[in-house]
Hints:
Layout: H1 2-20, E1 33-41, E2 47-56, E3 65-66, E4 70-77, E5 79-84, E6 90-93, E7 97-100, E8 106-109, E9 116-125, E10 132-133
Antiparallel strand pairs: 1-2, 2-9, 3-10, 4-7, 4-9, 5-6, 5-8
Amino acid sequence: MRKFVMGAVALTVVASAAFVAQPSFSADAPTVTRKVLMQQDLPMANTTEALIEVTIPVGGREGRHTHPGALMVYVKSGAISLDYEGKPNVTYKAGETFFVETGKIHEGINRGTEPAVALATFVGPKGEPITKQVN
Length: 135
C-alpha cells in the first residue's frame, strides 16, 4: 500500500509540475499562473483528472499548446479570447464555459482590462504532461 501511495504522490507531483511549467515568451510578457487544486487517478485504466485554476493577467497569453486529453473550462472572472485550431476566435466571459478536444492546438489570451480567472478540468492519460507547448 505504501508503495502505491508513494507512486501516486510522485505521479501527481510530476504531472502538476509539467502542467504548471510554462515557457517565457519575453521578459515583458505578463505571466500566466496555474494552480493545481486537485488531481486524482480515476477508476478507468491509466486515466487521471485534474482541476486547475488558471489566471491570465491583462495582456497575457498562454502560448499555443495541446492536451493529451479533454479539457472543460469555466471562466470565473474577466474574459478569455480562445484561439482554437480550425475554429474562429471566440471570447468567453465570466460565467461562460468552453470545451477543448484532445490534441487540438489552442491558446487563451486576455485582451480585456482585468485579470481572467478560469477553472479547468482535465481528463486524460495518467503519467503524461497535461500541457504540451507547440510552435
